[in-house]
Amino acid sequence: MTLDDLIPEIENKSAKLAVIGLGYVGLPVACEFARVGFDVLGVDILAERVAKINAGQSPIEGEEPGLAVLLAEVIGGGKLRATTNYENLRDRDVILIDVETPVDDDHVPQYVALKAVLRDLGPVLKEGALLIVESTIAPGTIDSTVIPYLEESTGRFLNEGYYVGNCPERVMPGKLLENLRGLSRVCGGKTPQTSAALIALYRHIVHADLDAADCVTAEIVKTAENAYRDVQIAFANELAVVCSALGSDVWRVRELVNKSPGRNVLLPGAGVGGHCIPKDPWLLTYGAEQKAAILHLIPTARGVNDSMPKHILHLLATLLAEHGEPLAGKEILVLGYAYLEDSDDTRNSPSEAFVAALQAAGAKARIHDAFVLQYQGDLLAMAEDADAAVLLVKHSAYKSLDLPALAKALVQPIFVDGRGLFTPAALSAAGFNHRVIGVGQAD
Known about the structure:
With 443 residues, the chain is an alpha/beta fold. It has 18 helices and 13 strands. Helix 6 links the parallel strand 5 and strand 6.
């Protein structure tokens, strides 16, 4: 089969699809293509997840509008099924890869899952199949890793025995289906005709621009958009540190700065988490550094954002010291462990870094999270006899928190707000001695 044969089948939805990796990205992608009429096979290495999906039950917790209903619908209608067996991929015309692509402690990409997929897929890859990498990868990875691994595992060559494209995902937890349908995509192909095939495919589910590009451009765009956001957040976080040091209020400063045309200072906070932003800037820099580029701003921004959990710990230690109390030996109630409000996703959570720093300082953490199953429970009961409370995630459940009751439950009414959820006035009225990120103490 050639792309001349495949593109019409994509357009009339007779092409058979597979999605490898059924997590936060792959599952909604599989559901969306099944919803519009494609025969979709989902593949995942976790048998428990596969069984749950085949039962029509979403393995993704947290607020994810529409996904559970859609999954039940497409499973019930027979348009989507899941498996752990690569042998079932032999008849698939288009295969999308949505596996994790982390970096190690030295910020080097670790493509263990991606390489495993390419290795296991090769022997069963249909002649003329189109392979699309949706996972975020360092610029140059299609050429340096994907194609060589496919050549070795298939014994065939690019654009003869198979075709390769790169269409990076653009979704975030809490808005998976909304983002999938409503955000533009870059359709990177090793040839213009491959890009055209990607556009024909995604046109079925994406109601936004689909832009043709080469694979390197697609790789850069995805990593650059998250690096850009990381840099902007780093500025907001550093501004919060400035305001705190100078006795000002970053929230008021931000409001006034943003009245100037073209300015949009983002929200400061206790850190940046998730699967994308803490990782993608390193993927971008890695790709450039392989070509001897020397970068400064992006790595510095990463350092600023990674430092914020320790900044919150410093605020807590300072507040305790004002009451003549050391941090060591204290039990601290930590509010929020997910990386994002109203989500159960804990990947690269700033709360994890905060708890580690807290323990390194000789203190203990009592963790509460309204969305992470293992940390759910009666918040006020958990607060009893804790020495202080620190808010790290702006879950909607915390907005209605009974602040006076929390203040009474603690050994001392000490509260650090690492997200600016509460105003200093509200915390003072509840009886707290407090610190709010970015709000300094007047002389």
